[in-house]
Amino acid sequence: MRGADRAPQILSEKQRSEAVALWSWGSDDVDGRQHTVVYIEPLRPNAPLPPGLTRWPEPGEAVLSPALLKAGSREGIGTRYGTFAGTIGSEGLEAPEERFAYVRPRAQLLDRKAMHPVRGFGSSGGGIASLGESMSIPDFSVFAAGLAGFALMPALVFLLAGVRIGSAARERRLALFDALGAGAISQTVFTLGEVAVPTACGLAGATGLISPTLLTDVPFPWTDFTLSAQDARRALPWLVVAGAVTLVLVLVTAVVLHPRRRADSGSTRPAPRFQRQRGWVPWLFPFAMLFAVRGSELAGDDLRLPVYALGVAAVLLTLPSTIAVLTGWAGVRIAKTGSKLGRPGMLIAGRRLAAQTRVTARLVAAVVVMIGVAAQAQLWTGLLGENAVNATATRDRIGTSLLVVSPLPDDKERVRDFAGALPAGVQLLLVESTSPSDSAGVSTRFTGSCTALKALKLPCDGKTGENGSERRVRDPRIAQFLRWTGSTTAGRITVRQGRVDDISTAADESSTLIAVDKSGADMSMPRLREIARAHLDMRANAEPLGNSWLLGAKDLEASAAWVRLLGLVGACLTVLAIGFTTLAEFRRFGREVAPLSALAGGYGIFGSIAAWSLLFPTVLAAAVGSTISMWLTAPITVGGRQPVPDSLYLVLAVGASTSAALLCLWGWRSATRVAVSWRPVAD
Q1: Closest-CA residue to 23 (of 34, 38, 11, 36)
Q2: What is the pLDDT of residues 311-321, one digit of tens each?
Q3: 576 vs 288: CA distance, rounded Å
Q4: What is the spatial distance between Cα 617 and Cα 23, in angstroms, rounded to a whole number?
Q5: How far, in Å, CA of 199 to CA of 610, rounded?
Q6: For residue 515, how many C-alpha atoms fall within 13 Å in the half-sphere facing its CB?
Q7: Is omega for the bond preceding 407 within 30 degrees of 0, making it cis?
Q8: Number of other residues whose CB lies within 10 A of the CB of residue 565
Q9: Smallest Cα–Cα separation from 29: which of 556, 541, 553?
């Protein structure tokens, strides 16, 4: 909304006489992060102001956002665009931490032809509403997909685990209600009454956690984003609706998941667990897998990511039931093998696995989701393009000892002024490239003073004019420059001594102005940018090679920060689900096997039962979950390479298996402790 309020109402050239101001935009960066710079020039004294400004800046003045002023303090951002004239108000910024600048160029640098005539600001007349922070963040559908996959899905797993944890006592009470003749409505009311109080307490806790956002701006960790209290208050009705929907969802889940009495039986006992395992859920897994892997490839560009995210969520939610079916099938054979070998532990554990497939699904669900979330987080944080990797390598090799200055103005006087204002030791060269007319390759000519040519280890005999050619590149800065400009070191390189402001470029040549340090040391890029904007052009910039790819990588890092934040939330929820589910399973496991100590004459049988009942399903889930996660990342490649290394899946599988072994030992100890204190009770 604020982005639309500051959008210009651009007029056509025929309506230029109606314009109240001139407007154009550009970009710049601070500490590798891009921001928008808007250039404005009022044409009338009563021209309406852009939102966030209290007055029109004078020529050569700039108004910056507070976040930009703070972030660029070390780079001298306050004087880069001219004289600092104040900060932009919050009503003119899309978000409190947005980096944004309004600049009124100096009269001698004002390029009216490159600016748009506008009649005012506001989306009512159309315009550009996606400037600023909106340009560097993903679409809402992308964020929604990340929120659903990394946070809401683990929350759903935690909810399902929470509803069923420790439910044995409730099942016995519901069985008693059944025996007393209570109908479905009475049982539902009873279940709602049990769940309503803890659910309301949870909702109250969530309200307490979110209430500070209604009172003050709240910064988010890692993401360099601050949530505006004004925006939070505007969303208050939606928050109330979300709370009500969540309350209803939890209550409905508690009612739906409690055991039902079989209609074809007069028994009042809860149905056996193997009958509560829904047989249709595992059949959804192959379709979900096909949808995730192939559906994203067939979907259009706008729907590819939502389709992929939906498919991944479906796979991770149906995979635990599939693993439970496998363990149930294996349980029958484990029981038969145990019976033949005379191993009571295998016999009991096998029958338990076969009869309690839904319990197994709950046990392995959190493990599967944890592995999937970890793999997806690594996938999206590793989406760094090949060109960005090359740009980073170039920066590491030559740093800022060579900077590309753009644009190259037609006014030679500006170039002369710029060259005269450069710091000591900084030299200018003009690089002209001619497209090849044969197989000889691109011809590149470097023009500059003798000092500048020698700074790049190019030949110079001290005479003005052509100084010969060079085919062997001796300075790594030239090699990197040729690489990024599409030339090759095999092409012809010529040098010419002369003034860069006296050279006329032919129509078939492309010209680039570069600044180099004669000693090969890094130059102050902020200082050169300030000088360029003061003498060359109002949009002038000085940047290292491949800087656009570096900025793109920085935007990816910003998105990756959100992935890490949401992934941390999901990981915490999944860890809680694993912890509570395992604790409940150990208590159930201990109660069920404790009487066996009287029959087995010792406690050693518990180790065998724990290994087959707890260790086996968890290790299987770790192996299958890692393999499925590897397949799920297959559709996402960058430059033909996988962003997720294969070693990660091995680490996840080994880590989950190690945790499973510890859980098995814990279950063995828990069952032994219960068995020691167990005494038969007469009915």
Answers
A1: 38
A2: 888 898 889 88
A3: 26
A4: 65
A5: 33
A6: 31
A7: yes
A8: 18
A9: 541
